Each structure stands twice: as C-alpha cells, then as structure tokens.
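Run log, item B.
One chain of 261 residues. Sequence copied directly from the ordering sheet:
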Amino acid sequence: MTALVVAFATLTGLVVGSFLNVVVWRVPRGESVVSPPSHCPRCDTPISPRDNVPVLSWLLLRGKCRHCGNPISARYPLVEAGTAAVFCGLALRLGADWALPAFLYLGAVCVALALIDLDHKRLPNALTLPSYVVGAVLLGGAALLTHDLGAFVRALIGMAILYGVYFLLAFAYPAGMGFGDVKLAGVLGLYLGWLGWPTWFVGWLLGFLLGGVFGVLAMLVKRATRKTQVPYGPFMILGAFLAIWWGPAIADTYLKATGTS
C-alpha cells in the first residue's frame, strides 16, 4: 500500500510541478494562472499536450520550442522533478495517512513560494493567505477521520504561536523581516504543530539557523551587507521540511547531547 501511495504521489508531483512553473511566473505579475494557456514566449504558439509532458517533453525537444527553436530554460524540468521529489519524500514520511493530502498541498505551495521569494524577494498573499484555509480544512478533516482532534488543536496553537513570534520580530526589526515571512510562519506552524511539539520547535529553530548562517556567509564572501535584502522564506521552508522528515530524531539527539533526556 505504501509503495502505491509513494508512486502515485511522485507522479502527481510531476504534474503539479508543471503547473507550478506557471504559478511562479504569473502570480508575481498579477496574471491569471488559467488563461491564456501555456505558450512559447517568443513565437506565442500554444504548447500542445504532447509537448507538455513533465520532464520528458523537455528532454525530447532538447530544451527548445518545437516551432521556433527558442531555448526553454532547464528550470522548468527541474521544478517538475523537484516537486516530484518533495511529494515522494512526504509520502515516504507519512505513508497512507489522511493528513498526506494536506502535506502535499504544503509541499506544492512551498515550492512556489520559495522560487518566487528567490526571484522577487516577496511572498504573495495570493499563495500564503489561502493556505491557512486549505491547511485548516484538510488537517481538520484528517483529525475527524482519525479521531485525533488533539493534533488539530495543537496545529492551531502552533500556527498562532509561530505567527506571533514572527510578527514581533518583524515589528521590532522591519528591515530584516517582512510580513510575508510572518504569514508564511503561521502556515508552517500549522503543519509543524500537527506533527508534534518537537517537530514544531526544530522547524522553527532550523529556519532561524539556516537563514542566519546564509546571511553571515554572504557577508563574509562580500556578496551581501547588513542592508542587503535576503529572501528568508526559502530558509524557513527548508527548515520546516527538514523538521517534517527528521524533527523528532534531531530533537532527541539534541536532548541526549545536552544531557536533558
């Protein structure tokens, strides 16, 4: 059963990744993700279904438009394959769990948010705000189906606390953190809280550590200064997903190393 779930999630990730390429390009520009259909930016020819198969079409076309020969960025198949890898990892972590759809949604929206933040240094409300509703509905449904309302309550508390922590940080030091990060924090707190307080704490801590280490390294190699705007969202997301996969093990290792367990 688990193998089927993982296979289905991986294939779904490929398809979702293809759609995320559209989301990442259009959402920051305020364009519809539905209309017009995907087309070549050079010759404006709509992309046919046979040329829109994730990863495979790009390889068969050798990274070029069939009609005009315009190069197609390798980022497109990488996003598709990367989303498939994220979906595969989440399915391996959760298995045939009622909460898996919620976490697959999180994986998809976080791939899009990380790329948009890297490209434009912002986290659009069009992606973060609906994630509260979608996450609460899907996790709430999972709680009802598994008769585990405690996990859902913990998720809501985790969401509120992490949102509050980041809100205070953004209020105290607005130059170092935007309110897009605050809204993302609440979404991540919801999912991390669902998995337990050790996972929640590790996800929160890793986000800070990864972002801080990157900022220091960037200044050391003179690629950034104290005033340089660094996209923090990708590090929050990376920290959260590392915690989703290994949070309890990391927390246990830390407690043993410090002699507190």
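Observations after the first pass:
- Residues 2-26 form the longest helix (25 residues).
- The chain has nine helices and no strands.
Flagged for discussion on Thursday.
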